[in-house]
Amino acid sequence: MPTTTRAAHSTLCISALCIPDGSGYSLLEVMFALALSVTLSAVAGAQLIDSVDELRAAGAVRYLSTRLQQARMEAVMRSTDVALQFVQIPGGYTYASYTDGNGNGVRTRDIQGGADPRIGPVERLADQFVGVDFGVLPGLPPVDAGSAPPGTDPIKLGSSNILTFTALGTSSSGSLYLRGRRNAQYVIRIFGETGKTRVLKFDARAQQWKPS
Fold first, then answer.
1. 204 in the Ramachandran plot: left (φ > 0), alpha (ψ -120 to 50) or beta?
2. pTM of the model
């Protein structure tokens, strides 16, 4: 009985690249294909990491902005000052809300002495948004042209690092800089006359701050 023979064709697959092996390939060609595959995987992986970092940083900014407005509403409802104190600890920052218990404003001394009680938990952004914390990218330009750059201090609220909201809905003024693990950079600006906030994002390519 006659037999039918078929030419065998194999395929060499390296990661996402498949190379038909009909005529054979040299070791150099195989190594080139492998290097190309590794490079493409690395580029895709870096883009994914940047995207995750950006999403976490954006989420942290939205969360903190909401916390600031909650403190503002708390001050209005309680008819007294409510403040957030930001404290630098090893490896990052914590923050918590306090209310004015003795009528002279929320102060560090009164917080330490118990006169201004804490009205919420002590929080840390990195506990909820991995890799995100208060921080400033090196060489970051100022938000407003002609003003001083932020330098290395991400909490711009004066020496006490306390942001106070009043019963009238106003507040102290300042800026809070947040950054991700890679290049995501935001700032929350607090306007004293209204107690409202504005979020800006730093565009590294354009080297500009843009509304977010």
1. alpha
2. 0.77
